[in-house]
Amino acid sequence: SLSDDTEEKLNKQIMMEGLSSARYLSMASWCDTRGYIKSAQFLYKHSEEERQHMLKLFAYINNAGGHALQPQITDIKHEFNSLREVFEEILDHEIEVTRSINDLVEHCFKNKDFTTFNFLQWFVTEQREEETLARRAVELFEIIGEEGIGLWTIDQEIAKLESEG
Ligand code: OFO
């Protein structure tokens, strides 16, 4: 079964995933109000995916005899200066999430909790994909440029990123 400190760290990861979900929902809504329709769709979907990541952790903790805790999520930002800022914040946030997963993986390895270590491999792979996706999104602003129909084009391209995976 889970050690107390592993359970606590897994609950911290629940907080990270819940925070991701909340942040992306807020970003989706902002994009929606600005006419960045494709980015909004992308972010609504991403928000839902983050909630699923969180629920995976709920199931794991509770099945292992622990207690998964609904996190307190506060200080959600509602306003952004630009679409670029939104995607730059996503990239920074995903890098932070990767760091948090890696710490958790290292902790499990050191404590010989190989079951949890194994469970976390899915997140390791997922983080690599999500970081790549966010990095590609940020790159679009450089490649396409924001002038003229640039922003409109970037918004269209965001929708295609996921399928290119
Ligand atoms: Fe965006 O990441 Fe969950 O894990």
Which labels suit this protein?
single chain, 165 residues, 5 helices, binds hydroxy diiron-OXO moiety
Low-confidence stretches: none
Q: Which ligands are bound?
A: hydroxy diiron-OXO moiety
How much of the sequence is in beta strands? Answer: under 5%
Q: Characterize the biggest β-sheet.
A: none
Order of helices and strands: HHHHH
- How many helices in DSSP terms? 5
State the share of residues found in helices, binned by percent.
Answer: over 70%
Structural class: mainly alpha
Cα(first) to Cα(last) distance is 36 Å
Overall radius of gyration: 17 Å
pLDDT averaged over residues: 96
Total DSSP E strands: 0
Q: What spatial form do the alpha-carbon principal axes imply?
A: elongated
Keywords: Cytoplasm, Iron, Iron storage, Metal-binding, Oxidoreductase
Pfam families: Ferritin
Binding site for Fe cation: 17, 50, 53, 94, 127
Protein name: Ferritin
Provide the fold topology.
Elements: H1 4-34, H2 37-63, H3 83-110, H4 114-144, H5 150-164
Helix pairs in contact: 1-2, 1-3, 2-5, 3-4, 4-5
Bound molecules: hydroxy diiron-OXO moiety (OFO).
